Amino acid sequence: MATGSINVSVENIFPLIKKFLYSDHEIFLRELISNATDATLKLKHLTNIGEAKVEYGNPQIEIKIDKEKKQLHIIDQGLGMTAEEVEKYINQVAFSGAEEFLDKYKDGAKDSGIIGHFGLGFYSAFMVAEKVEIITKSYKDEPAAHWICDGSPSFTLEEADKQDRGSEIILHISEDELDFLEESKISGLLSKYNKFMPVPIKFGTKTETLPKPEDAKEEDPAPTQEVDNIINNSSPAWTKQPTELEDKDYKEFYRELYPSQFEEPLFNIHLNVDYPFNLTGILYFPRLGQDMNVQKDKIQLYQNQVFVTDNVEGIVPEFLTMLRGVIDSPDIPLNVSRSYLQADGAVKKISSYITRKVADKLSSLFKNSREEFEQKWNDIKIVIEYGMLSEDKFFEKADKFALYPTVDGTFMTYAELEEKIKPTQTDKDDKMVILYASNKDEQHQYIEAAKNKGYEVLLLDSPIVAHLIQKLEGSKENITFARVDADHIDKLIKKDEEAISKLSDEEKESLKTDLETVIPKEKYTVQLEASDSESTPFMITQPEFMRRMKEMQQSGGGGMFGMGNMPEMYNLIVNTNHALVGEIISSETTEKKERLIKQALDLAKLSQNLLKGEELTAFVKRSLEMIK
Length: 628
What we know:
628 residues; alpha+beta; nine-stranded mixed beta sheet; five-stranded mixed beta sheet; 22 strands; 37% helix
């Protein structure tokens, strides 16, 4: 038997491992199973190239719990270690066996699935164990070895009588970590981290129902048998070529990833590149609706089929974190800060590649099946609009397939929009004015007024529309967006209007005086305009600039403009050709004039959802009196 001290540069390496190696102790199981997977895949590679003269067979990794002895066992059938290799790879902490293997076999091993990136993987066992044993036998014809360490730098190493190839790690679980001896705990960790490992993982057994014999009676129970409970899918969809998969395969994999998700995804994007970086994966577009928050953290990051995290910010562009699926790359550094990831050259290339693949897929869907694309628009627009807002390269591609629906349910690209409305909707500066509504019901009155003039009105109702409009106006020439209830539409409609006011200049001056006597100047700017006599008598609009600033404040962007709380300011457009306005002018008493003005103003406020509290109560009371 040999004894000695582990070759470490710091005497108290074990307390450091327990406290600081990883933020979460549960990672130890991922690390040990990753090591077991490496050992198995290394053996596979060596047998394939003829260097290992053994039968590879159908190896698996087994996890066993022994509650009575407070032990957790991780058993593999990989290449194992000799006593000399235990001394080299286990006792010399700073040396990575995986890295040496990859370097030695770099020409043929790069695609073998060897993980080799999980650092001090084996020593993570001491985060939960007070003592660790290794019983291992190499694929070479040498005696088995038994290594024991109690969490101090001292160890023992002696010969063992193990006959089968592979390694068994025995963790003597610490008193304060006994929950790692619970089946439910280990099962949950295996499902979280090892669900798609490339080597079958056995955890206990399960009962399998067999077909009834032909001569069995109907009341006879079906026979059963105990079989190994393999908890992982060692060949998940993203590891295959797109040509090997059909639509049903992608949908089945989605259900495997998200078993509690009942709705099927709208479509998927298969990622598969090996130069200048290695990346595979499948991304799914779920039905997103308008919510930008609850959908995040659904993309799972793997490294050679080992789960790493579901927080992919810094790797996947932010606008795509609302998607779902898997990305797998050995080129993404682990356990580093988000700021480091954002500065890493390989990660930047991966992020750009993912953005391009998503844009190409959307473009292909648009070109090949526009009708289907339009049907899905409301479920995917939040991602596309956010991408256009935040990623210039995505904006350039998306500008050709992003859709702008009208209030009547037709869809146009920007190019089609420009072709249709530019000849008829311009302001005094000859800018094309794109009218839009953000809420069809609340702005119905204004929509109808614009449509009656022959104008096209878009329906832009996403929560980031104010920011997107700013981006579009900055990137296009001579266009401006105006919400259908904003003051910009007054200028647009007035330009094309043929209506002539029925009032003389003297009557207009008198009317404006009467209006400004009743209507608070600090909140409303009164504008007299001639329009169709059937149009509404009073209409409230809001200055477009102020309305946008308020919208951007509400969506979290106001602070950047240093505007503070924007005041409530409105324009009151009075149609001088309306009969009610004529009645206000001809009223003989001040009391009647005031009542009619207040009533007309309150009706305009009611249509804009601005009439509340005491004002609403007064309006109802006044209306009842007028009816009587």
